[in-house]
């Protein structure tokens, strides 16, 4: 890929959705810079997965930014005193991390300005998702408007575009799109309580959505599940 290709920052969690988005952005000719966050999450395996995914795309630069969202608590993903639910829940679940995507996109926006990138990609989904408010079209549209009044790139440059290409896709359609782009989903981790080795619990909501997606897509599930509990 040439150095003059359009640059884009891709938020990467090492999961199924963000990996598909990375493949989509790359297929559109973007020079991709992946951004992950060590934010105090319990499921540390996602950071290793994000590194594996980025290495699989040889022209990608990968950055990990350290935050401490665990210090404010409020989520089962950052607070060990809150159990990760293994049954379906009503409303916004305790796995919601307060303002997480707002914080992540703000930092991605800063890096995009430094890189001279006018595009940021995020793998949020408003169909097969957990009800998180920061995974909805209204949030993405509002953040893009904010980005274009709060930055030099927005005021004096060519503007910032927030891409959320999975917003209206079911998990099966996402998987089919990724497989068409030769995504190796065995590299990814989606589980909220994965072991450090990347083995999934098979019981949390993220595991259920992932498994149902592969079943609906008619494809084998490459996820490694824990077998001792």
From TrEMBL:
<comment type="pathway">
    <text>Purine metabolism; 7-cyano-7-deazaguanine biosynthesis.</text>
</comment>
<feature type="binding site">
    <location>
        <position position="207"/>
    </location>
    <ligand>
        <name>Zn(2+)</name>
    </ligand>
</feature>
<keyword id="KW-0862">Zinc</keyword>
<keyword id="KW-0671">Queuosine biosynthesis</keyword>
<dbReference type="InterPro" id="IPR014729">
    <property type="entry name" value="Rossmann-like_a/b/a_fold"/>
</dbReference>
<dbReference type="InterPro" id="IPR018317">
    <property type="entry name" value="QueC"/>
</dbReference>
<keyword id="KW-0067">ATP-binding</keyword>
<dbReference type="GO" id="GO:0008270">
    <property type="term" value="F:zinc ion binding"/>
</dbReference>
<keyword id="KW-0479">Metal-binding</keyword>
<protein>
    <recommendedName>
        <fullName>7-cyano-7-deazaguanine synthase</fullName>
        <ecNumber>6.3.4.20</ecNumber>
    </recommendedName>
</protein>
<feature type="binding site">
    <location>
        <begin position="12"/>
        <end position="22"/>
    </location>
    <ligand>
        <name>ATP</name>
    </ligand>
</feature>
<feature type="binding site">
    <location>
        <position position="201"/>
    </location>
    <ligand>
        <name>Zn(2+)</name>
    </ligand>
</feature>
<feature type="binding site">
    <location>
        <position position="204"/>
    </location>
    <ligand>
        <name>Zn(2+)</name>
    </ligand>
</feature>
<keyword id="KW-0547">Nucleotide-binding</keyword>
<comment type="similarity">
    <text>Belongs to the QueC family.</text>
</comment>
<keyword id="KW-0436">Ligase</keyword>
<dbReference type="GO" id="GO:0008616">
    <property type="term" value="P:tRNA queuosine(34) biosynthetic process"/>
</dbReference>
<dbReference type="GO" id="GO:0005524">
    <property type="term" value="F:ATP binding"/>
</dbReference>
<dbReference type="Pfam" id="PF06508">
    <property type="entry name" value="QueC"/>
</dbReference>
<feature type="binding site">
    <location>
        <position position="191"/>
    </location>
    <ligand>
        <name>Zn(2+)</name>
    </ligand>
</feature>
<comment type="function">
    <text>Catalyzes the ATP-dependent conversion of 7-carboxy-7-deazaguanine (CDG) to 7-cyano-7-deazaguanine (preQ(0)).</text>
</comment>
<dbReference type="GO" id="GO:0016879">
    <property type="term" value="F:ligase activity, forming carbon-nitrogen bonds"/>
</dbReference>
